[in-house]
Design goal:
Layout (H helix, E strand, L loop, with lengths): L4 E4 L2 E4 L1 H16 L4 H46 L5 H15 L7 E2 L3 E4 L3 E11 L10 E11 L4 E9 L5 H20 L8 E8 L3 E2 L9 E2 L15 E2 L20 E2 L35 E4 L2 H10 L8 H12 L16 E9 L10 E2 L2 E2 L10 H21 L3 E7 L4 H10 L6 E4 L2 H19 L3
Parallel strand pairs: 7-8, 7-14, 10-12, 14-17, 17-18
Antiparallel strand pairs: 1-2, 3-5, 4-5, 5-6, 8-13, 9-11, 15-16
Helix pairs in contact: 2-3, 4-5, 4-9, 6-7, 7-8
Length: about 450
Amino acid sequence: MSRNHIPTDGIMIPAPSALKGLARLLKRFGCNRRGAVAIIFALCLIPLCLAGGAAIDLGRAYLVKSRLGYALDAAGLAVGAATTNDEDELAVIMQSFFDANYPAAELGVPVVPTLVLTDSEVSLYATADVDTTLMNVVGINSLTVSAETLIIRETKGLEVALVLDNTGSMGTFKMNDLKDASGIFLDILFGDDDENDLLKVAVVPFSGSVNVGSDFDSEFLNRDFDNNDWEPADWGGCVMARGGRRDRNDAAPNTNNRRWAGYLWPSTSNDPDRGENNWPPVSSFKGPNEDCPVPVLPLTSVKADVEGRIDDMFSDGITHINIGLVWGWRVLSSKAPFTEGVGYNNEEFNKAIVLMTDGENFFSRSSFGAYGYLEDGNLGTTSSSAAITELNSRTATVCTNIKNKGIIIYTITFKVNSDTVQSLMENCATDPSKYFNSPDSSTLETTFRAIGRELSNLRIGG
């Protein structure tokens, strides 16, 4: 048995000699000044624990930030690759990819990411709250981390020609409806931009002819007339159709007989059967320029210029859809007389025509247009019905020729009940989904809005 312990019912009690040794030890501890180290250590232990806890909590926060950034990058890439420019649709795509890459069960509770869309950039931002484990001892219950990503979208250029019916049947009300719908279309295309180098829009108002502008280059105009013969008026800019199938293509003139002749409606004061355009005197739009619409606006990147030309439009004259359509093609072409368009093989640009009409092709004995008078036989007939059939045929040919160049055609009929023109326009469109029949102004606005969005989407990686 040990000399230093006395057994008592299985409990070991220190022996008297051992107690004396313990007393001496306690006395030395009380007199030892080195005990200050223990106190300092105890005081330092608190911040050391907090620092360790902070390291653990911050590590968790960095892990969440990393996961949050990965999910946001995945969502941004998906949005950037989407062929839509509709913010609601893009928001759905963003959320779907974000959720797939950051499941709800993951550490950290994220908020719904936000999306900011510009013409060529997609900016995404998100935050997440991370509950702390040790830092909550000092009142820090959670940490908020954030992540953001910027995606540059591939944006293609777009050239679009608005070929718009300005004929007499449009009247005041339908013309105003067309202007309003066109404004919506432009707002969608241009967005917040007043000018965009990758977006060019032309306006081609048409009736029985098209106005190329009174300053039309003489190189392209067979100016075999003297303005003094038409006093007090002057040539207003409308041109006749060229012969030899040149009214169905975008070929540039290269000889005198391939130039355009000026449209100058003869005075019918001595022959009232040829039309009600007796002059002089010239008043309002009467005179040699009767039924001549406002001039074509060549491709421009300035929104205000497009809006101004559309606002100037008025209704007058007969309907030659093929004439408007072929000039819509010419303003998109890089060939003379309009050379603002890029070449057909330029992969950085898409080209499109939006054609709107409120009626059928028309030609009668009293009519005058790009083919002159019906009795002149410039359509190969002096029969009104046969001439209209020929105009429809030429319209179909122009449509085919344009589509063969890779130009997208959208067609719109506005308050049209004729099966003939509806069928003609549906067949003219690039595909049936790009033909729209609009029986009223509300539907016309919806149509222009839909086409505007589709063309905007086409610019994003289209």
